[in-house]
Amino acid sequence: MPLWTVHGDGRTVAAGAVVAPTERLGWPATVAMGVQHVVAMFGATFLVPTLTGFPVSTTLLFSGLGTLLFLVITKNRLPSYLGSSFAFIAPITAAVAAGGMGSALAGVVAVGVLLALVGVVVQVAGLGWIDALMPPVVAGAIVALIGFNLAPTAWGNFEADPVTATVTLVAVILFAVLFRGFLGRISIFLGVVVGYVFAAANGSFDVVNPATGTTPAEAISEAAWAGLPQFHLPDFIEPGTWTTIAMFLPVVLVLIAENVGHVRGVATMTDPSVNAHTGRALIADGVATTLAGGFGGSGTTTYGENIGVMAATRVYSTAVYWVAGLAAILLAFSPKVGAVFNSIPAGVLGGVTTALYGLIGIIGIKIWVDNRVDFSRPVNQYTAAVALVIGIAGFSMQLGDFAFGGIVLGTVAALVIYHLGNLIARARRTGADDGGPIPAVGPLGGDPLDDAPEAQAGRT
């Protein structure tokens, strides 16, 4: 792996310049920025284990280890933090309810292995086949239905304490619109802090947890400052495990889209040659997810929160991420940190997930907008419409010993309707097929009126 060269004077970044992945600022600035990246990822990373019942400290540990693995596998040329992926929330929740944590971890491992294999194929064959399998209308539908499928879970927590949930939700929104830059990007984390303080002031920490026989305040005070995280092993023997694994497979499509988007984003802001590491990025995330699932952590993905921090600071140095990964590992060895997160009241989770799950859905819709999907075409209409209703309503189907939920069925529906619909429409020449992105209205960056007949007459 290449070593870092010092950028400029090591203290400042010139106007219009960026600190490249193979560069770094002075070590004090690098360490400070690494800690900042930990703060940026923390709000979202701890939510996944908190919502699914996985150990928070274990997830943090494999988040940090996964980040370091990612840097090694991508030859230290692709800056990224691997945090907990929201795409795992729905299948993990369902798997834990059906077969326990062991079955859920088996699903995480399966996703990691499959993602790594996809990465190998991409490294050898390129990205073209992924674009063909998941064009924007399909990719957007899959991402959106995963978020909207979680709506009932958000409501379940919200109704447990509507007042605290409302305070938390309002705080998340206010922080997002009141603050610019970094504080605005961690609005979810700040909203949780506000909700947590509000719940504490209203006596939530004096309520005894029936499962442990202690109050949250007692659990936090009794937890040690240093100690080992809890480790759990996947269970591939449980009869229902292979049924639950099917629920996890659509997550692979989401992780592919997230990783490809991350690489393209970094390439746009630094150097186009970064795109050559797309296959390695998929392999790295697959290996990190497999490792996490093998010992009790949540599946990982590249984090948009940290891309935002890089865009704001113009520092893309991988040295910063080595610091962030090591800092996360150190935090993982504090049971007290885990106890604090495990004490978050249901109302707080209800408020923040109402926003968070909706935002996952909106990311899918943004894919449609960014790629100008033509929803006047019937194939595109039905691809999105059917997939979303299946996901939101939570359709389910039992085939022998296998049970398929809304995410699996919605994903299959999107793929089948799009590809089979296009095949039929093009064979019949009905015009119902996907005709590609809607053309831009008027010349980009110009005045559409310039090409009006009056303007043309004026030129002659």
UniProtKB/TrEMBL annotation:
Pfam families with a match to the protein in the record: Xan_ur_permease
A single cellular component GO annotation: membrane
Keywords: Membrane, Transmembrane, Transmembrane helix
Subcellular location(s) per record: Membrane
Transmembrane regions listed in the UniProt entry: 54-73, 80-98, 104-130, 137-156, 162-179, 186-205, 239-257, 315-334, 346-367, 379-396, 402-420
Membrane topology, record value: Multi-pass membrane protein
Primary location: membrane
Region annotated Disordered, chain positions: 435-460
One annotated GO molecular function: nucleobase transmembrane transporter activity
Protein name as annotated: Solute carrier family 23 protein
